[in-house]
Amino acid sequence: MKRVVSVSLGSSRRDHRAEVELLGERFEITRRGTDGDFDRAIQLLKELDGKVDAIGLGGIDVYLYAGRTRYVVRDGKKLMDAVRKTPVVDGSGLKNTLERETVYYLREHTDLLPPGIRVLMVSAVDRFGMAEAFAELGCDLTFGDLIFAAGIPYPIRTVKELEELAAKLLPEMTKLPFHMLYPTGKKQETQDEEKVKKFGHYYREAQVIAGDYHLVRRYMPQLDGQTIITNTTTAEDVAFLREKGTGCLVTTTPEFQGRSFGTNVMEAVLVALLQKPREEISSQDYLDLLRRLDFKPRVVYLR
Fold it and tell me: What is the pTM of this model?
């Protein structure tokens, strides 16, 4: 049996274990949260190194993208460098493949993404493949990277403007402690009430809200039937979204035994299946394997 473990800076309350069979291989998939404790995460990574088939880094990004430029998050790279033997990924490979394909799938097979629909992405630089796909399909876009990460009420409207601002800001922002940019530990279990009141209108004006679940949740006001396109959700998360007035939930990763796992976990699974050095794996390798696995978005109507 292959073992894949996600080591997350997120809450340990969200830990989960599942056994699945994929392409004839049995997998034990485990998520282990460290409640925002960076040193504990490094210790756990070193303990797992060489003992599992692949590791995913959760609750943090190692790489952010805008256009063809890749920006390295200093704290994320420290975690990745703690692992010497086992392949380790942060999910960015799937964000550029599976999540891009999810957008195309929803346009072709559902009525959730008609041309011109108003889409809010709470952060686009950590899901640039999805952002590009929305733009290609003619969606009316708002990127909330400055709004929710920096508290600056400046909506970014185009991919080109996102690339230009990223080139100016990300080289310095990626050097900051990651908890300043993204909720870790117990912050993932609470809402930022000040920003909910201040910036909630961006959610209400949108018809689709997309992006990392913890960011989506942290700033979410009461909704009126909007569609949420996100990654990992538990049964508790689905109940929260229903209570908040969400109309439809789309998760880009499949559900295994009661929850969808994060992109970092699923990318680690693909790496374990491909059995190639991580640096030799291409986007096409991922796409070909995803088609063999026949992964499709999970669409759940909550109303």
Answer: 0.92
